[in-house]
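Trying the structure run again after the queue cleared.
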Amino acid sequence: MFIGYIINNLLRTKRLHQLLRVVRTKSVKNCKTKVRRNSHHEKIAVGIHRRKTKDLSYLYPHKNRRIMIENFKSSVLAGICIGIAGFGYLAEKSIIGAVLFAFGLLAVVHYKLKLYTGTAGFIKRGEVGTLLLILLGNIVGCLLVSLLARCSPLPLQETATDILTARMNTGILRCGILAIGCGFIMTTAVAFARKQQFLPLLFGVPLFIMCGFPHCIADAFYYLCVPIDTLATTWSTILPLYLSLVLGNFLGCNLYRLIIKQKHQP
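Done. Tokens:
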């Protein structure tokens, strides 16, 4: 009897341990499942939060300001490159000058500078402010080179005045439409140059110059080289004319987006 009692107790103890193991195993699995569910919900919550707050630049004002300063400095240097190229074209207003103008674009691509016509075709939604900052920096760079051009003994101001007069005679609307061709050529040339294929750039620059397609940054340099008294009397006509060139270049730079499907875009 006593031996049977002990055996029964041992069997009960063994069953109890087995039950405890089962309970512990289930509790651990439940805990892991809860952890997985919680992590999954956390990932979903983080994704929703990121989608709701796409632009977090306001949380880092110092970083955002630093990026703006760097973009502005880069755009000023890009304007200087285009101004030097325009300087060469004013000095030799022929096919030779048109070919020499390509130096400015090659320098911009090589140094990865911010040029309006090289950036307008690749901007994303919400970057219009950055594009306008780049335009301002390009004009400042052209202004600096125009001060250099005024010191030159070459008849640069007369040639620049002839270009401005031709633009005004063409008219605001027609100049804006012609600027679309320049924008398309520029975006195509830059897209190839980013892949280390420079022939479209070397051919594209003389092409838009010989075709008479206005380049808004180059024209900014030409207008700033015009004598001060001429600018003072024609600024009310120059301003809307220049805005039409900026808009036309922008449309031309983004023309491929309206025609080519997204997956085939550069």
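Confidence is low (pLDDT under 50) at residues 2-7, 31-38, 43-50. Worth checking whether this holds up in the mutant runs.
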